[in-house]
């Protein structure tokens, strides 16, 4: 097998997740035997609303959305998680479950850690506990800012914010997603999203093809986004370790 092919076949390192990658060597070595690499296929539901969560997931690629669904079946995304964080905060926050479901919006991989191991590590009061709490604060900030954004900003601004937050977590300018799914995540009609995507394409900010959106002019997209993108990004930069 050629060397390039061998390199591509290697599994991602746990340290590609920024929380795991920021642990001291001794802490990382202690966790390593309990970390299991798992696939996160598109639309996989990591946990349903109210589920007793048994595993933490540390994404190394892909995006997981936190989604709240109402009694009438309508739903909206409240936050995105990528390789900067983790999924399953109820394990160490003490609530055991959450009203939000978590669903993969961009396929990838994650390292899974069992509930008992995380609780053991959390009780030690070390670096993992500190990083997990900082991430939870950042996630709360994102959720709060999303609520304000949904109430006060235009759909165009919200679509721009969502695209920017997505490509930040994908390390790519391309998002594999349908306009119907963007509408579901933002809690609006697909036709409204289609209109906005068309305007953004005409402006030169993005290019679209079937099931894909590529950001072609990031500065222009940032200009069209609301302040919420910059506020959330600044808070994540302040609280979490850099790449």
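Q: What amino acid sequence fits the structure above?
A:
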């Amino acid at each position: 097998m050629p060397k390039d092919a061998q390199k591509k076949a290697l599994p991602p390192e746990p340290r590609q997740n920024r929380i795991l990658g920021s642990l001291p060597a001794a802490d990382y070595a202690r966790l390593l035997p309990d970390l299991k690499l798992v696939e996160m296929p598109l639309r996989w539901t990591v946990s349903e609303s109210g589920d007793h969560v048994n595993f933490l997931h540390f994404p190394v690629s892909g995006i997981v959305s936190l989604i709240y669904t109402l009694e009438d079946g309508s739903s909206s995304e409240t936050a995105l998680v990528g390789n900067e964080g983790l999924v399953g905060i109820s394990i160490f926050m003490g609530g055991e479950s959450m009203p939000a479901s978590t669903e993969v919006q961009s396929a990838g991989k994650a390292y899974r850690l069992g509930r008992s191991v995380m609780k053991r590590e959390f009780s030690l009061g070390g670096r993992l506990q500190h990083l997990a709490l900082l991430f939870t604060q950042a996630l709360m900030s994102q959720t709060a800012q999303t609520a304000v954004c949904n109430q006060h900003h235009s759909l165009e601004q919200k679509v721009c914010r969502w695209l920017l937050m997505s490509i930040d977590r994908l390390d790519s300018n391309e998002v594999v997603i349908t306009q119907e799914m963007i509408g579901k995540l933002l809690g609006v009609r697909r036709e409204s999203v289609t209109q906005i995507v068309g305007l953004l394409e005409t402006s030169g900010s993005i290019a679209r093809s079937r099931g894909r959106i590529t950001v072609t002019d990031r500065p222009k997209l940032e200009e069209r986004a609301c302040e919420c993108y910059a506020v959330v990004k600044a808070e994540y930069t302040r609280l979490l370790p850099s790449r």
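Q: And what stands out in the fold?
A: The chain has two domains: 14-125, 154-225.
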